[in-house]
Write a structure and sequence with these properties.
Layout (H helix, E strand, L loop, with lengths): L12 E5 L6 H8 L8 E13 L6 E19 L1 H11 L3 E10 L2 E10 L12 H7 L1 H19 L3
Parallel strand pairs: 1-5
Antiparallel strand pairs: 1-3, 2-3, 2-4, 4-5
GO molecular function, one term: transferase activity
Protein name: Putative gamma-glutamylcyclotransferase
Keywords: Transferase
Length: 156
């Protein structure tokens, strides 16, 4: 697993998540500890659409006029949480800044965008479909490999 390229960001980082990290069990395991509910806020990325990442069960965001991608803002991420997130997202994504609409108004946040071009015709991705079809198997795989790797790489 390689590290996702990162953009410069301030010490208290907020991150927009739109895919499997919206699942509490995945999010907490990747972060290395439970993320308190007060650090989470519903949000939308206007002008973006959540689609399947090519050849995978997880998503990517693509620009799409007239659409909005549903997600969550995770606030006040620590350096160790960001390090773990960067490892989790790997080389498939690039962390960058973007504006999203939170429940209390617009915010500039970090987001992981696909490192490859995903075509406009990519199939729509949904968390509920992923949970129904892939959650159990992917969590078992993550527990057996990825989460242990994250713990080893971040000395937890």
């Amino acid at each position: 697993m390689s590290r996702a390229p990162r953009s410069p960001c301030p010490s208290a980082v907020s991150l927009f998540v739109y895919g499997t990290l919206r699942d509490k069990e995945v999010r907490d395991a990747v972060a290395g500890k439970p993320i308190a509910p007060h650090r989470l806020m519903a949000a939308q990325a206007h002008g973006w659409r959540t689609v399947y990442f090519p050849g995978a069960h997880f998503p990517g965001l693509v620009p799409a006029k007239g659409h909005s991608a549903e997600g969550l803002i995770i606030s006040n991420l620590s350096k160790s949480e960001l390090d773990r997130l960067d490892l989790f997202e790997g080389a498939d994504y690039v962390r960058t800044s973007m504006a999203v609409m939170g429940t209390d108004g617009p915010q500039m946040v970090e987001v992981y965008l696909p490192a490859i071009d995903i075509g406009d015709d990519a199939k729509e991705w949904s968390l509920s479909r992923w949970a129904r079809l892939h959650r159990r198997a992917e969590l078992a795989h993550y527990r057996a490999t990825l989460f242990k790797d994250l713990d080893e790489r971040t000395n937890r």
